[in-house]
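Quick log. Single chain, no ligands specified.
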Amino acid sequence: MVQCLIKKTLLKRKLKKQTKSFETMGSSSRSDTGRSPVPEDEEDSYKDRPKAPSIQRQVSVTKLVSGLAPQEDQPVMLHHHHHEEDVPDMIGGDDECKQEEESQVTRHDSFSSIDSLSEEERCTLLFTEPDDYGQRHPIETPQLIISKLRSFEYQLVLIPHHKKTCLKKAMKNCPELLTDKFKLMFLRCECFNEVKAAKRYAKYWEKRVEVFGPEKAFQPLTLDKALCDDGFALSHDFPMLSPVKHPSGRNILFADPSTQNIGAYTTQSMIRAVWYMFHAALEDEETQKKGLVFVGDCRYIRLSLFDKEFARVTALSVAGCLPVRLSGIHGYYPPKVFFIILPFLKFFLGERLRERIRLHGGENMEKVRAGMAKYGLVERVLPTNVGGEVELSHESWLQERRLAGL
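-> predicted structure:
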């Protein structure tokens, strides 16, 4: 219907132009393609003029992209740069109009069938089934990664300049660190939502400069580079990366707050140490995809050991900057004093991470272990100091990484 309306409108324009331009028009003056005659002084330029694309095809693409066809009582706006002489060659007969309309309906229906899917149906198509932590994970393909990385770059351009000042400095000072592999961590963290991933990426660099300072922020996060002055804070076993993974394939970070020695090192140094441990855990691709499990031994925690600034910056880093998905935050045998600290931590963690906190305590040891086992925290992945089988040697781990240049 739309094409036929276009045909009538443009034919009227053609006849009006022909009446004004030519006194006579013989049948021999029409070309084989059905174009109107061309004055001799314009013939050369007309031959060199590129042929315009089909108007029908332009309207068809517009309908498919927008999902809405123009109504009959609405004006049809055609933006083109060709002359009316080209009209007969671009408008088909009634049969061609009908075939084009039928083709458009078929293609439009294929788009509508996807658009009409519910959110749950879309997740089923693109994500795995919920795992033991209730999380769904994107089904990655090479095509998905390439497409999302391109979209990610586009979203970075859209971020206001004042919100990506440090990112722009990183692009200038350490472009070798800004690899696709590095950016992919942010996409995985946000389940390939490129808008959220780009915002997290920009915030990451703002926070990284805040934590490491402008001199070290753009250096590699290795023990001999950006962490060269933080060896003492790193040696305090807070936190530690387990050599044994969670049954789901996630890395596990253990932390015992009682090992902290406030006053022996600065708060900023300990924050840098925590950043290093998170990045070490993220070297594992499976952890990037599925997330990280954090387990805290709360038995010996004391209020005097609680550093509000350290807790605040660490929580904010995890909640909106570091490219890490925290699948679970577990604390076992928390004392009463811990419940004084907990609201403060929850405030900075945000709603989503607050829901992932699980406390395991009570007098019945078997009941506590059964509760932790529900989340895959069984004896073979727990440290020996809480009845598990894993021997933790943080000092040896640091030495190995130092020798490897990590």
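Strands lie at 240-241, 251-255, 292-297, 326-332, 357-360.
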